[in-house]
Amino acid sequence: MSVLEEAKRVAAEFEYSSEDLNRGVKAFISQMDEGLQKKGTSMSQIPTYVTAVPNGTEKGLYLAVDLGGTNFRVCSIQLHGNTTFSLTQSKVAIPRELMVAKTSHELFSFLAKQIENFLRTHHNDHFEAHVKRRKTMSSGEGFRNEEIFQLGFTFSFPVNQIGINRGTLARWTKGFDIDDAIGQDVCELLQIEIDALHLPVKVAALVNDTVGTLMARSYTSPGKTGTLLGAIFGTGTNGAYVEKLDKVTKLKSMVEGADYDKSTGNMIVNTEWGSFDNQMSVLPNTPYDEALDKATPNPGIQMFEKRVSGMFLGEILRNTILTLVKDPKCQLFKDSNSSTDNLHSTTTIAENSVLYKQWGVDTSFLSIVAADVSPGLKVTRQELSKGFGVDAASTEDAEAIKLLVNAIGKRSARLSAVALGAIVISTDNHVSTGGGDDDVVDIGVDGSLVEYYPGFEDYVREAFREMPEIGAQGERRIRIGIAKDGSGVGAALIALVAAHMGGD
Hints:
GO terms for molecular function: ATP binding; D-glucose binding; fructokinase activity; glucokinase activity. By secondary structure, the protein is an alpha/beta fold.
């Protein structure tokens, strides 16, 4: 069997047919509904207590902070009220010792100090006026609301949200480990330290970055239509969407006294769709997926994410390449082919090649290969040599790699379409029979896959056309736009919504 035939055989294992796709959509809708009704399901369907999306006319100056990993970002966002905004920001690395501090006070007082530094640097007039006023105030007097910055806090760790600005930390991830913070309200922990520094700041909203993506897109998107859905297809994947409040039946059994605005009849729900179908009833599976899952710290969890997001696609590709390289019958990266191709060369794989290292292949490699139209796939061969220690790979070797890359990328995009399509269908957006051109469904997306992987959106749209409830006519009514900076402008917009609700 030639190298290309071998690669085609492996690539075929990643095919995700129309039938599979539509089975996936049905299962996704059913797991969404289950998540709206009760807690403890694989798709969490978390109510965010945000009940409206912006329309682009909102104005004002808001703060946003983002604790997403090893950096802490502070921004101020001036909303101009015409779908545009200006953003000022600063970023600081979190000292390693604070990530594993003895007490949460150490970390959160550091964060509050960064907010103070930011206000002194970028909003000094407002800050100094506040300091002066505080000195002349009598002890019982409070600040006027207009003097206080409303802040949106993007906190990218698992939390149990119990109000628009209340959420208890479930567990740390990403190298953080501060025991006494578990079970505490993270907004309160930050507010206590802000108050200790007498800053004119109120933590108005706890923000999930996916919900922020939805809000940012809804503010900046053209036309009158609010955005239905915000989705991230990057290192990880998740989606948040606007649901009818009366469908979120588990709210009744959840927290007592959570304050939210019921007048809109809507609730933005954070799906946590990375864990769609953890039970593997409809998701596609291959030996390469199984090998990846076994090697992760959380086998059997986030099974949808492990087939879709950027963090995992490079490793799936590495597993397919290794399988072919180790097969004595397969000629990938072996001399018998390269001798006819490059007369004087012999293909070798360096002993320390990233092909032999777990997580050694970055997903950016897939984007480079998918975009390669150079003669003889020269770019891919250079990349194999420079990044992988595969010397003198043949054109046929490169073509084989491209087949595998396309198969893995296409499956990821078609699975992404399952999530997006299921939400469009389940929220009763009758796109296949909708009205005129104004009758659009708007989706905001962010993340490296959707931005940089060639043809990702085309594959998604092709999948939409294969869904009978959407079809060719409906697909044309779905508008997909990049939404930048959910954790900045999106967080500011949630703070705005919260301030208008009069949060607690």
